[in-house]
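Hello again, I could really use a second opinion on something today. I've been puzzling over a protein and I'd love to understand its fold better. I'm sending you its amino acid sequence along with the backbone structure tokens. It would help a lot if you went through both lines with me. I've dropped the whole record in just underneath, so have a look.
***
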Amino acid sequence: MASGRQRDPRREAYWRRMLERQRKSGLSVREFCTREDLSISACSAWRRIVQQRDLEQQPRAVASAAPAFLPVVLAETGGRDAGGRITIELRGGRTMLLPASMPPEQLAAVVRAIENLSLDREAA
């Protein structure tokens, strides 16, 4: 934790149980916290803490892992489509249509976000 305090494994285990119970309950955070007499702000804070700790525990990608992006080859097929869009084929046969004016950095961020979502769904 940024505050320099020691982690309390029992407290973390408690909040992990509470967060899991809330998720399984189907109730909103507010409803669950009211029912369980928990602080909504503490619940939200612990959700962030647990997510961060879980991210810290994930193994780092190794250099031999498959590249996040494959090389892109632009083929001239009469220029961009009639709407001035770029077509990108994603994993699983999905297609993305984006404005041709989209900056490359923004395009990269969009593709990364979508690909990460699909990986999360595959893992679930």
